[in-house]
Amino acid sequence: MINQRILSHFHESAELKIQAASLLARPIEQAVELMFSALSNGNKILACGNGGSAADCQHFSAQLVGRFERERLPLPVIALTTDTSILTAIGNDYSYQEIFSKQVQAFGQSGDVLLALSTSGNSANVIAAIEAALERDMRVVVMTGKGGGAMAKLITDADVHICVPHDRTARIQEVHLLTIHCLCDGIDVALFGGDEND
Length: 198
Known about the structure:
The structure is a single chain. By secondary structure, this protein is α/β, with parallel strands linked by helices. It has a single domain, classed as Rossmann fold (3-Layer(aba) Sandwich). The protein is built from 7 helices and 5 strands, in the order H-E-H-E-H-H-E-H-E-H-E-H. Helix 1 packs parallel to helix 7 (169-192) and helix 4 (101-107) packs parallel to helix 5 (124-135). The chain is globular and about 50 Å long.
């Protein structure tokens, strides 16, 4: 019984990735182009999300500030999910809905990119961050599932929406992680060229 459930998880995940590949390749490519343009012009990327999406933000930031698969200069990416003093002060003094938007207001500048993750597309604090980013003339890359929710309606034609075609949170997060690896690889190749294995 347990063995069958495990196999089912693997099969469902693999099938979704194969199904999503052709659908998501173009928006992922557009996100790489947006991020490459920002980074090559001296701008930065801010990233936000809750729970597993917060972990994905930190994973993305770690691989660009540190490295993905090659040695290179560090890239300016800030996960807005990590400073407990900022998060708890804003959550306590204002509201949890503002924990990311106030950081976008503090750190975001015109030309920067906000990477906004929410499996439902309806996270109120991520929506507030998107609104703050758009007010600051930043571009936004939204990663969602479940049809995109409210976040899909917020962004402009200059932004990018990567929507995993699934309703199960675990499966959406698995594709989000693969997408993050595609973004990191694409940024590395765009900034520094292909390696000898390409």
